[in-house]
Amino acid sequence: MTGTPVVDPIIDFRARAEELLPEGASYDACLSCGLCSSGCPASGLEGMNPRQFIRMAMLGMNEELSTTPWIWTCTQCQRCTYVCPMSIDIPALVGMARGAWPWEKKPKGIVRSCQAQLRFSSTSAMGLRSEDFIEIVDEIAAEVREQDDRFKRLNVPIDKQGARFFINQNSREPAVEPEELGPLWKIFDYVGADWTYASKGWAAENFCMFTGDAAAWEEMVRKRVDAVNELGCKVWVNTECGHSFYTIWKGIQRFGLEANFELGNLISYYAQWIREGRLPVNSEWNRDNLKFTIQDPCQLVRKSIGDPVASDLRYVARKLVGEENVIDMQPCRSANYCCGGGGGFLQAGMTENRRAYGKRKFDQIMATQADYVLTPCHNCHSQMEDIGEHYGGHYRVVHYWTLICLSLGILGENERKYLGPDLAEIGLQS
Amino acid sequence: MQQKPRAYEVQLAVIGSGLAGFAASIFALERGLSTAQVGNTGAVAYTTGYLDLLGYHPVTGQQMLHDPWQGLETLRRDEPGHPYALIRNDEIADAFHLFTRAVSDMGVNYSAPGENNLAALTPSGTFKPTLSVPLTMLPGVEAHRRAARTRIVDILGLKGFSAREVVANLQDSWPGLSAVTINFPGMESGSQVYPEVMARALQVPAERELFAQQLREVAGDAEYLGLPAIMGIHEPDAVHNDLERLSGLRLFEIPTMPPAVAGIRLREAFEQIFPERGLLLIPQQKVDRVTPEADGTTLRLKDSYGDVSIHAQAVILATGRFLSGGLEALRDGVREALLNLPVTQPEGREAWYRERYFDPRGHLVNRAGIEIDPQFRPLGRDGKPASKRLFAAGVILAHQDWIRQRCGAGIAIASAYKAVESAAAMLTRQT
Ligand SMILES: Cc1cc2nc3c(=O)[nH]c(=O)nc-3n(C[C@H](O)[C@H](O)[C@H](O)COP(=O)(O)OP(=O)(O)OC[C@H]3O[C@@H](n4cnc5c(N)ncnc54)[C@H](O)[C@@H]3O)c2cc1C
Ligand code: SF4
Ligand code: SF4
């Protein structure tokens, strides 16, 4: 974050694009077909759309592109690249433009979150320090042990050397809704997973990536990779958060970091444990045949793992709520729309634009007529709740862990914040 | 970082996600072959949605073919090198029926291919001969045949579709045709209005009610309303039926210029249904390398997650032409991009194009492509099949001019049928 330029730098987009793109690829290949714009929820915001962005780059309209606030409304979801016949990577240009904005002009919310991450060894974007994290974890673990006899020996390990799984933690739970920590721990306990949190580098979110500052992104990923390497864990697992997976997976490759472990994603472990019979979930609790739809987080599906994880999301959902009660959004899987909460949009303070972007997600959800949206992503969760309220939808948004515990009859009374009255009583221990 | 390599083993790998690739996957699944498909957005993204069999023959004649099946017989006599010369009429009919039925099952209903071509509306208000059309568009064919009182509706801000232009072009043959412009609910500013966005909005019941209300208000005494193609993306027939119910009007769609929804409907239906039926689909990616091996062929590619390899017993090449990247136009000639198969082509670049762009005979470069044997195996430089495992389908094949002959979908579907048939026979012989 040094060397803040005094005047707005004007990027030579054309020249930088040549450096950025893999061999053989070129923005000149653009057919101007408009498929990108047609399928982009940010089209029309700030008077811009992705096709126009590419055209302007090719025409050398560098000043306009270097200063348009549109780059903060593009969530870098890569849907445009996905549908483009020439696979043109527009978000790469957007990321570059973000990086070149002077820090003091970038959206404050994103910058503040990144700065917070850089401040402490916890890497928490909410500025939560490790000692506080550990205290909160201890407190909630004690509560879980006390509330439910079945978990009276529940252990939440921190810094356990050589544990198989290194579990990171999105700061939102410990900082804002600590009671939401319990369900995941119960699941790990249920399957007897050998896991640990760490006292440093445990946070999962990475807003530095969204600032466009590659050095800050790298620093963040490096700290977390070091933490896993130090503990000698075999698998790093994201919790139900999309971009935490993407940022570390992409970061390790992009910055050539040495990571002596695998990257795993929680959803695929849920699926595996269900298949193996270790998580014997069923849908009997869904007596009213409530309908559920699934939000595929861009960062986890289209931008990284792709179809295998999309299939696991569906496999787990069907087991949980019943085959006939899962209704896919259209489009879905890798073609799904970004919710509009990604790329730092939720933190960027551009509420009107963000909701306009989210209208498409809202329509997708409403078309399914589902009662609930299931999603393993914090940003998707917050954004879909917000647009639901804003546009007058009556759906609710839930995590997978909530339903897994609900189905297993181990969801505590205080862990039901996101369930509606229809499910508030189901499976409660009397 | 330790990342497990992804390697798959299948009987058949299909390279290409155009109509030929998708048709090949449909036919392969139907035969119970374990199948993988890889391909990016190709020409199918720009399609009107109509499935053409044969619209014109000879291309210098101005008359649309009424009976394309008869036309095919003549074509085979006149152009023995044409891909259709290797496929019998009953096979083509079978292929069309299987394909349209499969696509209809996926939620995008098509009219059953019949004896005769239909006269289908184009975005500019002309007609083109085609064999099968989406049911959302079919009532337009009927309205025209009956010269029914019809109003064409366009939408403020939607580029490339003008109701006035459609009416101006049609009014001589279709009296009682009129035009009107409406606002799409929520897009009254008219800026950046895309068919895809409207179509997605109309998936929502509440949005349909608002829109139907708009339609009722402008219908006047019209029996039919013709709209740009925006009636939903997923299961458009349900959207169509519901809008008719709500408005009390007969509605039909007219294709729009790209970016349009017809191709998106097909792509999304395939992308959603295929994986559920056990097809290994790697969407929106291209194969980088194909390596023949003693016990099969290996395809290599990179997707967003990293390296993928697919080992297959048989491969169908359906990579399309220039627009889709199956053929490349280089300074010294046309090249087949993936395997460097020999390409039949005009001598020298000067011969590619005739002087006049609209020369009715068409341009020679449009007939360039790869050669195949009767089993649809591409030929190598020695004139023999390049490999016993390799088959080809679609508009990459030489000796056809799908644009002028109006036979794009037909070649894709029928040749995919034959290529899969031959691949399946080879696989059976092998075991
Ligand atoms: C503007 C336009 C309008 C059209 N309208 C109609 C119409 O109204 N009716 C009609 O019948 N036909 C129409 N067509 C034609 C129709 O789309 C084509 O005839 C048909 O799609 C050809 O099918 P294909 O599968 O052979 O090739 P394409 O559709 O071109 O598909 C080729 C596929 O191969 C993929 N590919 C290329 N290289 C690789 C690689 N290395 N690895 C993996 N995949 C690769 C491409 O990404 C693409 O998915 C239209 C075409 C265009 C361009
Ligand atoms: S989809 Fe790709 S080729 Fe088409 S306009 Fe957008 S960037 Fe250009
Ligand atoms: S990355 Fe997403 S938001 Fe950005 S231009 Fe592409 S489709 Fe639009």
Describe the structure.
The complex is a heterodimer of chains A (430) and B (431). Chain A is globular and about 70 Å long. Chain A has helices spanning 13-20, 35-38, 50-58, 62-67, 79-83, 90-100, 108-119, 130-147, 172-176, 182-191, 207-211, 214-231, 242-254, 266-275, 301-305, 307-321, 351-368, 378-391, 400-408; strands at residues 165-167, 195-196, 235-238, 262-265, 292-294, 372-374, 396-398. Chain A folds into 3 domains: 13-106, Fumarate Reductase Iron-sulfur Protein, Chain B, domain 2 (Orthogonal Bundle); 109-270, 3-Layer(aba) Sandwich (Uracil-DNA Glycosylase, subunit E); 278-408, Rossmann fold (3-Layer(aba) Sandwich). In chain A, the strands form 2 sheets. A 4-stranded parallel beta sheet of chain A has the order 2-1-3-4. Chain A has 430 residues and is mostly helical. Chain A starts with 12 loop residues before the first helix and ends in a 22-residue tail after the last helix. The longest helix of chain A has 18 residues, at 130-147. In chain A, helix 18 (378-391) links the parallel strand 6 (372-374) and strand 7. Chain B has 431 residues and is an alpha/beta fold. Chain B has 2 domains: 6-107 and 265-430, FAD/NAD(P)-binding domain, CATH 3.50.50; 138-254, Rossmann fold (3-Layer(aba) Sandwich), CATH 3.40.50. Chain B has helices spanning 19-30, 68-78, 89-105, 138-145, 163-170, 195-201, 205-218, 236-247, 261-276, 402-405, 408-430; strands at residues 6-15, 35-39, 118-121, 127-130, 150-155, 177-182, 224-228, 250-254, 280-283, 287-293, 296-303, 306-317, 327-330, 333-336, 343-344, 369-370, 390-392. In chain B, strands 1, 2, 9, 10, 11, 12 and 17 form a 7-stranded mixed beta sheet that branches. In chain B, strands 6-5-7-8 form a 4-stranded parallel beta sheet, with helices on both faces. In chain B, helix 1 runs parallel beside helix 11 (408-430), helix 3 packs across helix 11 and helix 7 (205-218) crosses helix 8 (236-247). The model of chain B has no long low-confidence stretch (mean pLDDT 95). The chains are: A mainly alpha (430), B alpha/beta (431). Chain A binds chain B through residues 31, 33-35, 37-39, 43-44, 47, 49, 78, 82-85, 87, 249, 252-253, 257, 259-263, 302-307, 311, 328, 330-335, 359-360, 363-364, 366-367, 369, and chain B through 1-4, 40-42, 45-46, 186, 191-192, 194-197, 200-201, 203-207, 233-234, 258-259, 264, 267-268, 271-272, 275, 281-284, 286, 303-305, 323-324. One iron/sulfur cluster (SF4) binds at residues 40, 42, 50, 74-80, 90-91, 338 of chain A.
